[in-house]
Amino acid sequence: MASTQNSEKAKTNPLVKHNVIKFAYMHLAALYGFYLCFTSAKWATIIWALLLLEAAKIGITAGAHRLWCHRAYKAKMPLQVILLIFNSLAFMNTATYWVRDHRLHHKYTDTDADPHNSNRGFFFSQIGWLFVRKHPEVIEKGKTIYMDDIYNDPLLRFQRKHAVLVIGTCAYLVPTIVPMYFWNESFSNSWHIATMLRHVLTINLIFLVNSIGHRWGSRPFDKSIKPVENLSISLLTTGECFHNYHHVFPYDYKASELGDTKFNAATLFINFFAKIGWAYDLKIIPDNVIIARIKRTGADKTLWGWGDKDQTQEEIDGIELLYSKRNVA
């Protein structure tokens, strides 16, 4: 019976062989790049790769995720251009493709219509979903997702139309050439560290939200859903794994309940541009709405506790005190 079920699953989700080969090469190249960091790379190359890594994560978190997918704030054209460059550097497909999959993920979380359904296992939700054809439900439900705002965005249309040129330049050409030109780094070090290692880290760090972010952590806002709060993953993903909160309140520009400056680099980035007027209409959720939701559906005695214990009145009072003192934008 088990072999029959596995056979049927293979027919439903056959391997995308060129993706398997591509990701296998990328990860092997990244491992070699990690080795080169300790043997022959210049410090400037390592620092360059780290700066690119942070920029790429911002391109996903502050760009594709909070700006374009959830419309949690608005951005003037100069900031949109910066985010488009950072998003192209990340190369997790085009922003248009990313937004469609993420809106689908929110609407059909942890079902067969979720592109990286966590119920199919840790590896699948982390990166395995890129190795197989999309589940028929993902394809079918994907047709129902509202995308007019994305298709009508001239910058996103440009990236999608000229994806090979734009993404190729931002994700591969510039990261490799800059170390070679400015500080005489070797091609091998530039390619394997600033391009391959940086790219693989970007993908795997961001996708920790899909795997760990739906598995290990607390559920203070809604104990009936799988997304969790996980502080360590939030630090690695510029503030994206306050995930129980985010699935309950997806339009908060902070994607977090901890105010705007704690463990949340993407929020700091948005706040900086808000101060100079390039980001505006930042959406936040009123504290009374958050507290009401915690009382109605939340769990855990603290925001960062583990398990699904029902809250006592004393714990609820403590939560209200926390929110009365926090500093929000």
UniProtKB/TrEMBL annotation:
The entry's keywords: Fatty acid biosynthesis, Fatty acid metabolism, Iron, Lipid biosynthesis, Lipid metabolism, Membrane, Metal-binding, Oxidoreductase, Transmembrane, Transmembrane helix
Cellular compartment(s): Membrane
Topological type in the membrane: Multi-pass membrane protein
Main location: membrane
GO molecular function: iron ion binding; stearoyl-CoA 9-desaturase activity
Annotated GO biological process: unsaturated fatty acid biosynthetic process
Domain Fatty acid desaturase, residue spans: 43-251
Cofactor(s) this protein cannot do without: Fe(2+)
Domain notes from UniProt: The histidine box domains are involved in binding the catalytic metal ions.
Family: Belongs to the fatty acid desaturase type 1 family.
Identification of the protein by name: Acyl-CoA Delta(11) desaturase-like
Source organism of the structure: Galleria mellonella
